[in-house]
Amino acid sequence: MRLVIAGVALLLVTTTAAAAQSRWTLSAGPEWTSNLGGFVGGRVRAEYDLLRPTKPLRLRLDLGAYWEPSQSFSGTYLDGSTVAGWKQSMDITFGLSTALSPFPRARFAPYLTVGALARQSWRHSSSFYFPAGTVSSTSGTSGDIVFPLGLGLRARIARHLFQVEVRRFQGLHTNSLTVGTNLPF
Asked: Which H or E element spans position 23?
């Protein structure tokens, strides 16, 4: 009899824990630029759903970071002059994003996301221009507001929630592809 009661209690606990969705999502993936040779780095994001994630409209607190290793670039202008150099950057973002899904409780739920994020970025670069022979070296930090726009897909697979999201940061010419899952707390 104790074994039956313990089994039923265990079943209720695991079913309740699986049905209760976590509000935390952790995502990571590559980010690249569409200009200057397509610099590639990595983006990590943590999101907390301020509204219940089973609603069609989700409001999320969004915290992210980007890191790009040192990368070289070169190019030729129309007048025949060339430019070459290297660049390295990183940033931290914080803000709000919303997601609109027509089928929030479906096994596969597509969604549209838009946000407003405060961004603090750090850059270090050096460029060499030929035949002029000028060298340009920059290092610094800046803060601005960025507006990501994206498409995503949330999938429920074996009691776990996964998401794939493609974002474009308006005005920055950068794109990201992140894959994430809900955290168990």
From this structure: none
pTM to 2 decimal places: 0.77
Tokens of 144: 């601005």
Q: How far apart are the first and last CA of the chain?
A: 32
SS3 content of the chain, % helix, strand, coil (to 5): 10, 70, 20
pLDDT, tens only, 35-52 = 756 778 999 999 999 988
Residue 137 lies in a domain: no
- The bridge status of strand 134-157 relative to strand 40-49 is unpaired
> Is 129 among the domain residues?
no
The answer to whether 180 and 150 are in contact (CB under 8 A) is no
Domain span at 164: 2-79+88-123+145-182
DSSP designation for 183: -
